[in-house]
Amino acid sequence: MQKIFINLCTGGNWGIMDTRKIFTIFLYTTILIATLHVNTAMPQTKGVRIIVTFPSLKYDVEQLLCVYDSVESIVPPGVDPHSYELTPRDMEKLISANIVVSTAHSSFEKKIREKIENGEIKARLIEIPYLPGINILINPATSQPNYHMPIYDPQNYIVFMEVLEKNLEEVNPACSEEYRSKLERIRERIEEIRVNIPKLNITALAATPLAQYAVNWLGINVKFLIVKEHNVPTTPQDIIAIEEAAQRGEIGTVLLVNGSIQANEKAREIAEKYGIPVIVIPSPLEARSIPENLLSILDQLEETKIRHNVGDGSISTNLNLSYIMGIAVIAIILLLVVLYRRKT
Question: What pTM, to 2 d.p., does this model score?
Answer without folding.
Answer: 0.77
